[in-house]
């Protein structure tokens, strides 16, 4: 499918003139001073405009000037007599758009060959998108569906645009993942790229225009970058940010699923480098809670330089490099190369045990996509409350895995599942296949098991002695006179008593009447 989309894109642009933008044009820096070669310049046939044109107000250009530049950029020959062109361009001036904003909004509908006007097409898309997002949330906690990202960065216009503007155009946006540098090394930038709706936190030595050039060199047209596309703190609409995050944060994982992800391991837009302590730092990309869901299907390591760690060669056949630090770095890369967007429950939880986040609840939130839990995000929640809500929102299969495979007794309000503290502090079992399901009833707050079940049995004759570290053997007598050997591998000491027994290819046993707690 992606190959077909690339061919469509190629033929769509093949008749357009070649365009060049460079670090010198965009930032005033000489290309020779830019450490990352792919950030120096871009030449190609994508309809890319320079930032100087993007930043020019439509009112300065006038209606005819905007029309002329749209035609020149997109290879069209519209006139002011073309249906709906005059009114839509006048609207851009009335709304104080700069050319980049106008271009980003019009590019994908400028040459549509259908009966509706440009305004009608844009209005229809916007209304459908609003309705989709309105229906996505059920109450304040659960998500009924997973909508696409609210915004994307259009690299041709160098503007962040609503998803409904891009909708149906080309391939799924190729997202950027990056290590967040320490706060003292960041600066908040007010940029026309996102309409100056909120300050964009980036490393002090990074430049969004250079990142744009590198992404264009990677043949990306639309990308998703959190600092530009997810409303950040510090803007004039802080109330809107909290509301948007309920839906937008849980859908981040969907952006990265099954696509090639561009990763800046040393910080957004920065050259890839490696020094002592980087891999152990709480700012390391491999150790952050949010990046667990950002591995994608394939990966491109961005910020590469000719003398960077990506070009180091092993010194032996065992994968060792010149230094222990380089060896560790490449082992980390190998680990994510073996990762896909399919997540196993306990392997994912164990991975999160070694990760960190600025807000403690983000370690829970970073699992929602991985564990198939359509749960809204609340940044002020406690981790324990967020974990309870996440388990309640999990698919039935994930709940079944916890019931059958987790070996301990939950220390919270539910005995069949661990608390968040238990999940983060205790050794976790290996993943296995189980076909029972546990679903949560939100109205009654009960957890319901669906699957094979022997309602009543009696365990007797277990070996006496300490159960710790020792398997014990006894007999399970079922009401219909059937008898099974009972082989206990469990930290909790069962006694001779009546039990409820549910199963997949393994069994979960509970004192009769207690499993529903």
Major sheet description: 5 strands, antiparallel
| Number of helices, counting only DSSP H or I runs of 4 residues or more | 18
- The level of helicity is 25-40%
Number of E-type strands: 19
Strand content: 15-25%
Integer average pLDDT? 88
Compact overview of the structure:
The chain is α+β, with helices and mostly antiparallel strands and 517 residues long.
Question: Helix and strand layout, with pairings?
Answer:
Layout: H1 2-13, E1 19-22, H2 23-27, E2 41-44, H3 51-54, H4 58-74, H5 85-94, H6 99-106, H7 118-136, E3 137-138, E4 142-143, E5 151-154, E6 159-162, H8 163-166, E7 176-178, E8 186-189, E9 200-203, H9 208-217, E10 222-223, H10 226-229, H11 238-248, H12 252-256, E11 260-264, E12 298-301, H13 324-337, H14 345-353, H15 362-365, H16 383-393, H17 396-405, H18 420-425, E13 437-441, E14 446-450, E15 453-460, E16 472-478, E17 483-488, E18 497-503, E19 507-511
Parallel strand pairs: 7-11, 11-12
Antiparallel strand pairs: 1-2, 3-4, 5-6, 5-10, 8-9, 13-14, 15-16, 15-18, 16-17, 18-19
